[in-house]
Design goal:
Helix content is 28%, strand content 24%. By secondary structure, it is α+β, with helices and mostly antiparallel strands. It is globular.
Length: 441
């Protein structure tokens, strides 16, 4: 169960890592400025020069510039930000979904580098690393004062190279060294299985470069198992790559169907359409969403809802309707900049609103599991919804609470409701008018 503080941190981290476009049309050489901008930059360089010359202690000019950039982007919206070289490299790894390393999830617990869990069928898993193990040394270097990112950097590396980690485990009398050969670690973003009554279940954790191909493999496997309907679970999915979301949606809609369109400052409309086969997966389908479904997840849910391809079930989604472009900078750092708003096929802006489910089902709370809900509209400096007619109207400020951790299958009321719905799909279809998409608008 998430504690409130821990949840707020997780939401904040997720928000900063939501759906992005890996920009190819921007680079540092494209940036131009007017005379007034250059005049303002003159003031900046004067201040930098004074600090370097007169501050009581010696300063790192690069860090000063980085901090200034961070402050500049902080004045925009909560999704724009500066990525130093290490963070930029890590972002690329996350979106690609694979890296050279050991295959363990780690965190800092009480100041000690601790294993959350080994990833199945990876070098760490095969070496016998277990959840709860404390890593006290990496290649003989103590981890006591090491940051989490430094530890990650030291354990990652090219396939075939080795790293020695020193483990302290409960019940052991002394630490033990594990020398592990690095391999290519692939983080799967798609999990699937067959539920009762031949109902297929697919969970997408995040939208990465390989998510669409992983989904295609999952659907192929489930079809061989003889499923008759599908549940697509997008709960607590913070987003990811825009193109991945479009390609995922394309597996459920006819070719050349509009999935989403975006508009930047100039108002120019850029459309994203399905590129898949002409015969998409067409079994009855329910999509599960909650307050943690954001950005790319909302793109998928919004398109499937607009084209009446699936029933959306759960609670109101996060409400992030903006697109971030990742722009590489000359020193290996990067810029995550909000460059456009996105709209569902029927022209609805999701910004601060989210996707409203066709069927609202809340998870039942147990033992105080409900925690305050934070959505896009609660973030300081968020973009307003450009379709709001009355910009001055007051929003409902009544605090909302919800269950965030999805419970086990038997206690998952949203999942059970989806299963019940699919069991009676034929009758429900006649009552609600839900049908597959046949047009290519």
């Amino acid at each position: 169960m998430f504690g409130r503080k821990r949840f707020l941190v997780l939401v904040f981290i997720s928000v900063l890592a939501l759906a992005v476009v890996l920009a190819g049309r921007w680079s540092i050489t494209d940036v131009s400025a007017e005379a007034e901008t250059y005049e303002n930059l003159k003031v900046f360089t004067e201040v930098l020069s004074v600090i370097q010359r007169s501050y009581v202690e010696k300063v790192d000019s690069k860090e000063l510039v980085y901090d200034a950039i961070r402050g500049m982007l902080k004045s925009l919206d909560p999704h724009s930000g500066f990525l130093p070289p290490d963070a930029y490299k890590e972002m690329q790894v996350e979106t690609k979904g694979e890296f050279g390393g050991l295959g363990i999830q780690i965190s800092m617990r009480d100041g000690i580098l601790t294993v959350i869990a080994p990833i199945e069928d990876t070098p760490a898993w095969r070496a016998g690393i277990k959840a709860g193990d404390k890593i006290v040394k990496i290649n003989g270097e103590p981890t006591k004062d090491m940051t989490l990112q430094d530890a990650v950097n030291k354990m990652r590396g090219p396939k075939g190279t080795s790293v020695t980690i020193t483990i302290v485990r409960e019940g052991w009398d002394e630490p033990k060294d594990f020398t592990i050969i690095r391999d290519i670690i692939r983080i799967k973003s798609v999990r699937f299985k067959v539920l009762e009554d031949n109902i297929g279940y697919v969970k997408i954790n995040q939208f990465q470069q390989r998510t669409a191909s992983e989904l295609a493999s999952a659907l192929k496997s489930l079809s061989k198992d003889g499923i008759t309907s599908l549940i697509l679970d997008l709960r607590n999915n913070p987003g990811g790559l825009l193109n991945a979301a479009v390609d995922v949606t394309g597996q459920f809609l006819p070719k050349n169907t509009l999935v989403v369109y975006i508009k930047g400052r100039t108002g120019e409309r850029t459309e994203y359409r399905t590129r898949g086969k002409n015969s998409p997966f067409n079994l009855p389908m329910v999509v599960l969403v909650n307050q943690g479904s954001a950005s790319a997840s909302e793109i998928v849910a919004g398109a499937l809802k607009d084209w009446k391809r699936a029933v959306i079930l759960g609670v109101q989604t996060f409400g992030k309707g903006s697109v971030q472009s990742i722009i590489p900078l000359s020193d290996g750092s990067g810029l995550r900049l909000t460059t456009a708003r996105y709209y569902t096929p029927k022209g609805t802006s999701i910004q601060t609103k989210g996707i409203t489910p066709d069927i609202v089902v809340k998870l039942k709370a147990k033992n105080g599991e409900e925690h305050p809900v934070i959505r896009e509209k609660d973030l300081r400096g968020h973009l307003e919804n450009d379709q709001d007619k009355d910009k001055t109207k007051e929003e409902d400020t009544k605090p909302e609470t919800a269950v965030f951790k999805v419970p086990d299958e038997k206690d998952d009321t949203q999942l059970q409701r989806a299963i019940d719905l699919l069991k009676t799909w034929t009758i429900f279809k006649e009552l609600s008018g839900v049908s597959n998409v046949t047009a290519n608008p």
